[in-house]
Design goal:
One of its GO terms (biological process) is Mo-molybdopterin cofactor biosynthetic process. InterPro entries: MoaB/Mog-like_dom_sf, MoaB/Mog_dom, MoeA-like, MoeA_C_domain_IV, MoeA_C_domain_IV_sf, MoeA_linker/N, MoeA_linker/N_sf. The protein contains six helices and 27 strands. The protein is α+β, with helices and mostly antiparallel strands. β24 and β25 form a beta hairpin.
Length: 393
């Protein structure tokens, strides 16, 4: 067996961004930029009002003012202003040439085209200067940035209809086991178990930038597993198999898929849970990642291997999602045994609270687990208050 760090190093070396694609801004959510985004225009494009009110010349505040026009957002700027003139103006509208202040509408009164100041106006000019947000040619987003809602605002504001990004990795799932059935149908069949892990793994993959392109459940039949795997591999970059990766009498998945054009990267890791995890790669960027069948084991190992793999294929850094931090334990944690242990716990009052039940088949506690707690194999137990490595789960 190899260590978790050794397996991670192998997968890190094998994974890299997929091809670069030109994507419409409306279809780019979740992708990572392969090239930086530069502004095509100034923002604002000209001096604009920050308030609803009246554009005036500061030098004219002590004299009579006459309203000579209006300025709306999206319109062209009115003619240059002369002495004693005012222009009705709205938020985002261009400021007339010559105006250097906007009087908010709450401090003025109008009679016909006459404007009178009846309140205090203070130091604020209420004008957003041209280019005060950003200038044409300025880099707004660096290559590698993932396009979430805030980043999409910046890209669209830069006047970009399309952006260059790394293609999202396509991920498919193949769960194996005669006992597995679709959720909602297990109660109708004695001995059946709902496939509780595939929907969770699919959501995890999406969160790290994947597109889900398929999901199948196969019986413990090598020919059927091989048939479904081939169909899924035709349309995905990463095939995740669930179950069938151990040494049991009917564990067929790794034996049915690893052969042929795939090269085994690693199999069997000295970790708990996750000893039977394996990974193989075909020429190019096509992977098979084999996870254990127990839901907790599958979810833990997916967080440790699938999440960074998807991130790297999507154009990010493999290690950016393995951001371990030191936390104090809220309670004692027993010795891990000979293999490295990734226990489940929760972040509670600034500390790591380990769960008492660390069985790989436990599913109810997963809803409360938001930390993985890492213990070196062969180390001793830890007491409350001692430090432990923690990873957001």
């Amino acid at each position: 067996m190899i260590s978790f760090d050794e397996a991670s190093a192998i997968l890190r070396e094998a994974a890299g961004p997929l091809e670069e694609v030109l994507v419409a801004i409306g279809e780019a959510a979740g992708l990572r930029l392969s090239r930086s985004v530069e502004a095509r225009i100034d923002a604002p494009r000209f001096d604009v009002s920050a308030m609803d009110g009246y554009a005036v010349r500061n030098a004219d505040l002590t004299g009579p003012l006459r309203i000579v026009g209006k300025s709306y957002a999206g319109s062209q700027a009115p003619r240059a202003m002369s002495k004693g003139e005012a222009v009705r103006i709205f938020t985002g509208a261009p400021v007339p040439e010559g105006a250097d202040r906007v009087l908010v509408q709450e401090i003025v009164e109008t009679r016909g085209d006459a404007l009178e100041i009846v309140g205090e106006f203070g130091e604020a000019r209420h004008i957003r200067a041209q280019g005060s947000d950003f200038r044409e040619g300025e880099t707004l987003l660096e290559a590698g940035a993932r396009l979430g809602p805030r980043q999409l605002v910046a890209a669209a504001a830069a006047d970009c209809a399309e952006i260059w990004a790394w293609r999202a990795p396509r991920v498919a799932f193949l769960a194996t086991g005669d006992e597995l059935v679709a959720p909602g149908t297990a109660s109708d069949r004695p001995g059946a178990l709902p496939d509780s892990i595939t929907p969770a793994l699919a959501e995890m993959a999406r969160q790290y930038g994947a597109t889900i392109v398929g999901s199948e459940v196969a019986p413990d039949d090598p020919e059927r597993i091989e048939e479904l795997a081939a169909q899924l591999l035709d349309r995905c970059d990463v095939l995740v198999t669930i179950g069938g990766a151990s040494v049991g009498e009917r564990d067929f998945a790794s034996r049915s898929i690893e052969g042929g054009k795939f090269r085994t990267l690693f199999s069997r890791i000295a970790m708990r849970p996750g000893k039977p995890v394996w990974c193989a790669k075909r020429d190019g960027e096509r992977f098979v990642l084999g996870l254990p069948g127990n839901p907790t084991s599958a979810l833990v190992t997916a967080r440790l291997f699938l999440a960074p793999l998807v991130t790297a294929l999507a154009g990010g850094s493999y290690d950016e999602v393995l951001d371990w931090r030191e936390l104090a334990l809220a309670e004692d944690m027993p010795a891990p045994g000979p293999r490295e242990h990734f226990g489940r716990g929760a972040f509670s009052k600034g500390k790591a609270l380990p769960f008492a039940n660390q069985q790989s088949g436990a599913q109810a506690l997963l809803a409360k687990a938001d930390l993985l707690l890492r213990q070196t194999g062969g180390s001793g137990g830890l007491s409350a208050g001692q430090s432990i490595q923690a990873l957001d789960f």
